[in-house]
Amino acid sequence: MKTLCCMMMMAGAALPLFAQEGAEAVEAESPKALKWNGGGDFRVRQEIYDRLPGTGGNISKYNSYFRMRARAWGEVKNEDFTLYARVADEFREYARKPGHRYGETPGELILDNLYLDLKNLFGGHLDLRIGRQDFMQGPNFIYGSGRIIADGTPMDGSRTFFFDAARAVVKFDDKNTLDVVGLYNSDKTFSLGTPHAIGGDYLPLNCIEPWAQGLVEWGGFLYFKSKEVEQLPFDLYYIYAQKSSYALLNGTKMQGRRLNTFGFRVAPKITDDLSAEIEFATQYGYRDDGKIIGGQMGYAGLTYKLPSGDSGVKPYTTLSVLWMSGERHKSSPGMADRSWDPLWARYTFLVSEMYVYRGISGVGYWSNLVFPSLEMGAKWAFSEGGNEHAAFATFGPMLVETDDHLGGGDGSLYGYYLRTRYDFPILMGFISKEKKRGNLFGHLTAEFLEPGNYCTSHKMAYFLRWEISITF
Questions:
Q1: If you ran DSSP here, which 8-state letter would residue 255 be given?
Q2: CATH of domain 2-21+36-471
Q3: Residue ranges of the domains in the chain?
Q4: What is the pTM for the complete model shown?
Q5: What is the pLDDT of residues 320-350, one digit of tens each?
Q6: How many Cα neighbours within 13 Å face the side chain of 315?
Q7: Cβ neighbourhood burial of 179 (10 Å; 0-12, 13-18, 19+)
Q8: Percent of the chain at pLDDT above 70?
Q9: Per residue in 185-209, is it b (16+ CB within 10 Å) or e — as a string?
Q10: H/E element holding 431?
């Protein structure tokens, strides 16, 4: 609690310093001088969904609710270090469920980020970040395209993304780096207040089944990035993940597991207008009972940027296929399953948010999927030198690799899937255009699934959302 109070005071105290132009000018003269900064953001969104397919042929009922998330941050830094802290709170208001207690006001004030950066150690060849930190920044990922490592706290959706981790970046030169990371993610966090979670006295951060409790994940990874060949950048990685056993809401105990993942990602630039992306990973490990587990994941995509002409619109089209193995050899001696474990990619930005909300294998648990798709989109300028509008639509059939009958049907077609999204700036730099402070922006997204024979439901499922955010 003492730490939280100090952080909030730091974030609040930092804001008046924006007006101290004289002080900033003095600090600019010396890179060793301490610089203070702070700010925050507020997001409101409404989500509406109905008839999302689930396990055993169940489908969700109509639901509509508002999510409000507020965050405040503060930092002190110079050229050698940064100390950064952020707190967050999210609560919900349900349109048709007054008895649904999750997210009553006030919600749960969370220590969302708290880390120390140490920069340019050993002659500029090493950077360290120690503490609670995000491995994704908005739509951008630190590691690849986010198919392996993205969200350390997937169970609470986009309320938080953090990992409790120590991250070292070894810089061999300007084009080759190696990230060495150790992490530990508990099912609880430092907080004030209560989220009024259903089935418990707190909202789980990283479980798989709804409102399950007790999952703790830890491990580490090596992630090498190379841009030695400008037209052929690539990544190589090894990840070790260990998961504790945990209990479902009905008392069922899920076994822990130890898993090794090896993979690579390459993003060749074929021409100025044509590029590709290929990623493959394989897993091998054991459950607590000694049975073998593992799986494979693959992605291949080809993107063509169409000529923009004089309009300033930059259209593109991407043809891709995503594959994640399903359960195989489950009845073989010594085998548990060979389905893909999504590790820390159990989040809402991978292909579908609908699938995350009502996943067959668990909340955000991407596995047993073959998804060929066509995406068409475009970006265009908001104003000269300003942020861009962006819109896209993705369509394709979702299939299961192994018919495990969890959807209730007798086939392998999960359904035909369509997703559209439009991101738009509204007012940018209304506090300071030079410092890019004060931005108002939003997005609209809609998803539709026409269920196939893997599901017992024959009614179209949909997920809708609008969002407005402000940063300062």
A1: P
A2: 2.40.160.100
A3: 2-21+36-471
A4: 0.88
A5: 999 999 987 666 766 778 899 999 998 876 7
A6: 10
A7: buried
A8: 84
A9: bbbebebeeebbbeeeeebbbbbbb
A10: strand 413-432
